Amino acid sequence: MRIRLGKRSKQGTPAVLTETQVRRLNLVFTAFAAIFVLVGGFFVVQGTLEWIRAAGSTSWPTVDGTVTRSEVTSHRSSNKGRTTTSYHAHIEFDYTVDGQKLHGTRRTYKVVASSQSAANEAVAAHPVGRVVTVSYDPQDPSRAVLDPGWDWSNAIPIGVGLFAMVFIGFIRWLVVKRLRRSQQAMRELCTLGIDPATSDANAPQSSPTPEGSAPAPAASDPTRSAGPAELKPTFHDDLPGAR
Predict the structure, then answer these.
(1) 3-state SS class at 211
(2) Domain boundaries, position 141
């Protein structure tokens, strides 16, 4: 059994897929959609955890710490021949909780700008050797931050993940809907005893006319009157030399 889809080839003939090909197409797209869902779910879960930690950091206990490293780092990325550079303020600090010396590297949970000016300002505000206030997680003192709190920028990863999941779900719905329509149309044709593969093969196909050449004349119809009657030679017996 074959299933006719709406897509057409360059010659204008309908594309025909077997049921096995439809099942394979469905399986491939399902796997592709599952990857999108997993990636989107990872962004949602990770973004939600970061948001919870950012919101809880405002009530974390604090201790004094000392900045041990403060510099601007850069990262270059290329996309379609265009190179962009992002900058990051890399700040490290030491602090002590209950007699245990710890080391931290997170400045904030907020999504900060990657411009060079913003990174320079952060480094200038945290020079090496400066005493800073460190907020640490009482459940895990090794988790600490210099600038506690959150803002709406923390919702960006969650929004990206949700958009990816909704988008791939919508595309998946369209594909399934199209395949179901094709299957229903195929069942109706089979009920009428019509095989699309056979009908397409037996259908007359017009050959392309070369550019600049006149189209082939149409077949004559005996029931259709032609133009002026064609003149035919006649013979007369009374003419001299006819006999």
Answers:
(1) coil
(2) 61-147
Structural domains counted in the chain: 2
Alpha carbons 72 and 81: distance in angstroms, whole number: 25
36-48 per-position pLDDT tens digit: 888 888 888 888 8
Measure the CA–CA gap between 63 and 146, rounded to whole angstroms.
Answer: 10
Sequence-distant (6+) residues with CB within 8 A of 200 are: 13, 14, 16
Is 78 part of a structural domain of the chain?
yes
Task: Fill in the DSSP letter of residue 215.
Answer: P
Same domain, residue pair 29 and 90? no
pTM of the model: 0.54
Q: Does residue 139 sit in helix, strand or coil?
A: coil
Q: Distance (Å, rounded) from C-alpha 166 to C-alpha 163?
A: 5
The answer to whether the beta carbons of residues 70 and 125 sit under 8 Å apart is no
